[in-house]
Amino acid sequence: MSLTEQTAILQKYLDLDQRGAVIAEYVWIDGSGNTRSKGRTLKGKITSVDQLPEWNFDGSSTGQAPGHDSDVYLKPVAFYPDPFRKGDNVIVLAECWNNDGTPNKFNHRHEAAKLFEAHKDAEVWFGLEQEYTLFDHEDHVYAWPKGGFPAPQGPYYCGVGAGKVYARDLIEAHYRACLYAGITISGINAEVMPSQWEFQVGPCTGIAMGDELWMARYLLARVAEEFGIKISLHPKPLKGDWNGAGCHTNVSTKAMRQPGGMKHIEEAIQKLSKRHAEHIRLYGADNDMRLTGRHETASMSTFSSGVANRGASIRIPRSVSKEGYGYFEDRRPASNIDPYLVTGIICETVCGAIDDADMTKEYERESA
Ligand code: ADP
Ligand code: MN
Ligand code: MN
Ligand code: MN
């Protein structure tokens, strides 16, 4: 059967009336930094998150629970219009909880949310730059010559034209899917290494940053599935003279965004400099392969900051320095971060620790 014929058959069923039922696709974060999802039928249009029932799954199949106590509970925290099923159908983001009433060890949202709630008057905004790499079915970098390498880096960043840019159709489809779902996607660009791309989400306030980035990653995996392309979030997918992949984290508080804000930006950088090692532990696995001091990165062992300096841990954009207020960019986080860990510890460091949350302990909880 041809693809056209198959599409026509599927379309007959997609056109059927759902008779008032809504399909909710529940998404969660598994034990290896990927998303998983499953669907269920609900009655009627969803207008608030408390209309969404709790659910559960077999955590022993996702590396999130032992076989003898395998139920992991899904607590809905946000929902988005579903760009695949459309209509009143929704995609639901859920936190994972254990049977004994404790957050699952890969649920880092719970602690981070406490920090953002305690510091809500600071109005912390984030903007994340998610870099990622495309691979084909045989695990070759997508569209690279088989058994060889493309010409060295140079023409690919924001590249235009055949041989300089790959999979623009996939990137465009993902961009539109994010807009449909109400994700605060602020842009896209082709990266320095061919078949490496970036999308930006933000500014988003507090916990919504992690929620929206995870949802944007889920949408990317789903769209790429249709194109038969694999998405890698590894920070150094290819050894050698090829750029790694990061997740630059742009940060501001209300005070930083107002005239005179530079003083607050400098204070924040001062605080970050004292906890470099603690931050690095939460800034992604294999980040040592990326933070070498080359390829527009700072070395992992030292903390540095500077205006317009893409070789520093923290960069103050030139425009921010000129105006005297705005935001700063933490360039250390890797592409494979859990954004809840990174935004959570930045909030803790910049706005102050609270008694009932400790982001540093989250690392130990996950590795326990
Ligand atoms: P770069 O020049 O580092 O490539 P990008 O344009 O890719 O920067 O990304 C900048 C990010 O900063 C965007 O996600 C944007 O939403 C975010 N951003 C802009 N202003 C602020 C702010 N005041 N606070 C936090 N994030 C911000
Ligand atoms: Mn960028
Ligand atoms: Mn980039
Ligand atoms: Mn950046």
From TrEMBL:
The keyword Ligase applies. One of its GO terms (molecular function) is glutamine synthetase activity. Residues 108-368 form the GS catalytic domain. Keywords: ATP-binding, Ligase, Nucleotide-binding. Its EC number is 6.3.1.2. Residues 22-101 form the GS beta-grasp domain. The keyword Signal does not apply. One of its GO terms (cellular component) is cytoplasm. InterPro entries: Gln_synt_N, Gln_synt_N_sf, Gln_synth/guanido_kin_cat_dom, Gln_synth_cat_dom, Gln_synth_gly_rich_site, Gln_synth_N_conserv_site, Glutamine_Synthetase. It catalyses: L-glutamate + NH4(+) + ATP = L-glutamine + ADP + phosphate + H(+). One of its GO terms (biological process) is glutamine biosynthetic process. Belongs to the glutamine synthetase family. Homooctamer. This is Glutamine synthetase. It comes from Lachancea mirantina.
